[in-house]
Amino acid sequence: MTPPPMTEPVVLLSEAEVQSRVTALAAEIAPRIDDETVAVCLLTGGLWFAADLTRALSRAGRNVRFDALWLASYGDERASLGRCEVRADLQRPLAGRRALILDDVFDTGLSLSEAQRLVRDAGAKETLTAVFARKPWPKPRAIEPDFVAWEAPARYLVGYGMDSKGGLRGLPYIGALD
């Protein structure tokens, strides 16, 4: 049986607007880091943002190191499962270094909080966090990101790393499926 086709997302931020916000965020972050900083991408969704932001940081004069953590808290669901599973750990030594944790969207704060704990446990001297989109949340979160590119609406977001059951991540813009 063939699944029904996905509806076309409503565009909230165009590709040009996404890139403009990433460039502005890099200019804000660059003075707070150095070339020894390790950018830690949260997989899978953070990959698009991390790639664009690290290139923008390079254009701003900062050539960070790169690593990734693969955390899962959603699976194919639209709501968090309430726990965070580590599927792949850090590969680069962080002891004594600054870490910049990068993720696509911040809603419950579970993944970012767990990533920050793991990075601190790995010996980072300082952890900074940056997300592309921060969604409103009805309750206080354990952590708030240090840097935010876009204050997103409370909608189901897709594109630029955000997905619907694994699909639509590669859209160059951010859309809503609700």
End-to-end distance, in Å? 24 Å
User: In terms of quaternary structure, what is this?
Assistant: single chain
Query: Structural class from helices and strands?
Result: alpha/beta
CATH topology: Rossmann fold
Topology:
Blueprint: E1 10-13, H1 15-29, E2 38-43, H2 47-59, E3 65-72, E4 85-88, E5 98-106, H3 110-121, E6 126-134, E7 147-151, E8 157-158, E9 174-176
Parallel strand pairs: 2-3, 2-5, 5-6, 6-7
Antiparallel strand pairs: 1-9, 3-4, 8-9
Description:
- The protein has helices at 15-29, 47-59, 110-121; strands at 10-13, 38-43, 65-72, 85-88, 98-106, 126-134, 147-151, 157-158, 174-176.
- It is of the alpha/beta class.
- The strands form two sheets. It has a six-stranded mixed beta sheet with strand order 4-3-2-5-6-7, sandwiched between helices.
- Helix 1 crosses helix 2.
- It starts with 9 loop residues before the first strand and ends with a strand.
